[in-house]
Amino acid sequence: MASLLSPRRNRGESATHRLRGDIDLAATEPTVVIGSAGPTELPTLAWMTLAAGAGLISVLSGWVLVTGLVVVGWLAAEPGTLGQALSAGTQLWLLANGGGATLGSASVTLIPWGITGLVAWLVARTAGYAARQGPAGSPTVTPMVCIIATLSYLVPLLGVALLAGGPWPALRSGMVMLVVVPVAAAWGCCHARQTWPTGAWPAWSRAVPRAVIAALLVMFAGGAAVLAIGLVVNLDRVTALLTALDAGIVGNVALLVGQLAYAPNAVVWAACYALGPGFTLGNGSIVSPAATELGALPSIPMLAAVPDVGPGSVSHLWWLALGVAAGAVAATLVVLARPSARYDETALVGGLSGVLAGGAFSVVAWATSGDLGSDLLSGVGPELVPVLVMATSTMGLSGALCGLVLGLWRRRTARVTAAPVAAKGSGESKKVADPSGVERPKRSENEPEHTDEETVALTHRSRPPINAATADSADDDDEGADEPTQQIG
Asked: Alpha-carbon distance 412 to 414, whole Å?
């Protein structure tokens, strides 16, 4: 082998020794690309301006939509001035915002929740866009956007309501939209920024809003089914009403738009019908599964779905299962969020979730009632007290029963699952090991521990193997132990 000082040593060996220094050089890719443009955040004044624009755009869009439809229908149906059409459109726009409307001598306070829901959707989308432009980690963006959007919506609304209707319509519209606009803006901001206030709640309580919303959706779906079946069954009556009206193309379009505006109200009324208490269509009338009593009704095709006057059919009583199903759905979602709860706890939380869902539905039903005039059609829609009693009791009891059943079923499933594990553990505990490390079944008390043959076999098996070297060293030790010790000197 060549010497390390020799210039003729191996070239690869020399390179290896040179690379074994303390400094290790390696080529890496740059983590920051020069000139790359990342997402930029707008200044505070900019996204606050967008939040103010969210409210202004929503209130203006709602007015243009309602007033534009009214102007087209008004001018096409009967002669009149543009000012009269704009005034009627503004009145209906105030009605959609909860302020009521005065059309001739009729006072209308029944809110068309179809238009109100569309306005709430506009608020949610525009407020969400404004919230996305704010700082990503700031916790104040969502509340600030909600406050600014609400104020920018309410200020022009209250101004128009005071000029067109007076202080009472302004107060009513302000109270209604003071609830609708902040809720819609908050939902839009949370959805846009993916930051929900329920994230800071305890784990079990996060399922409560979902349970209440799911129960409401069940009630709305059931109400839509009741309404659709009623229209299909009474289709000949609907056709007769349309033929008798003979409103023409423009009139039929206006009639369709008006019925779509009140379609959410009709769905909630039908859900109240399925729940049991039903609803009223004016003074002295009642529509429920048990019986139907009616007075004079306007010629509106949607009202053709109302059952005939008299005692209700037995088949209509099956709709009472809708409230039971809604309470069961609410209880199921809450119980599934508590996997370790006992059956008594599941029954309690199931009942409470059903009561909350029933209370929420009662508030929604109350919001869909109002007046369609001052005479025969005053006080149409569900009544708060009967709906509140029936909804909370039905959904609460069904939720408690569903929670109890789920808790008992979970307990039984846990016992069935734990039984094989316990049996396996007891079987393994009966196995013992002999000195050789081999597991054997445990003997009974009357059976002897070992026979003579097993004892000899275990003895030989437990001894270590003896080789020749070990035997010789043992013999030497024995011989050394037998020799007497001698003392020198």
From this structure: 5
Question: Which residues, given as ranges, of the chain have pLDDT below 50?
Answer: 1-9, 11-21, 32-39, 432-433, 435-439, 444-445, 447, 454-456, 458, 461-462, 468-471, 473-474, 478-489
**Other Cβ atoms within 10 Å of 56 Cβ, number:** 15
- Tens digit of each residue's pLDDT (9 = 90 or more) over 91-150: 999 999 999 888 777 788 999 999 999 999 999 999 999 999 888 878 889 999 999 999
Q: Are residues 188 and 208 in the same domain?
A: no
Dihedral angle over CA of 7, 11, 15, 16, nearest 10: -110
Which of the listed residues 195, 222, 250 is the one where a domain comes to its end? 195
Q: pTM of the prediction?
A: 0.75
Burial 463-488 (b: 16+ CB within 10 A, else e): eeeeeeeeeeeeeeeeeeeeeeeeee
Q: Work out how many domains the chain is built from and give that number.
A: 2
What sign for the dihedral angle of Cα 435, 440, 444, 448? negative
**Domain housing 411:** 202-425
Using one digit for the tens of pLDDT, what is the confidence trace for 197-221? 887 787 778 889 999 999 999 999 9
Rounded Cα distance between 458 and 435, Å, is: 7
Strands 310-311 vs 101-103: parallel, antiparallel or unpaired: unpaired
Instruction: Answer yes or no: do 241 and 190 share one domain.
Output: no
How many CB atoms within 10 Å of residue 209? Answer: 16
Q: What pLDDT sits at residue 34?
A: 44
Element (H, E) at 191: helix 167-193
Main-chain phi, psi angles of 106, to 5 degrees = -95, 135
| Contact predicate 91/27, CB 8 Å | no
Angle among Cα 153, 159, 161 to the nearest 5 degrees reads 95
Tokens of 333: 């979602």
In a domain, 430, yes or no: no
Which residue reads 């009139």 in tokens?
251
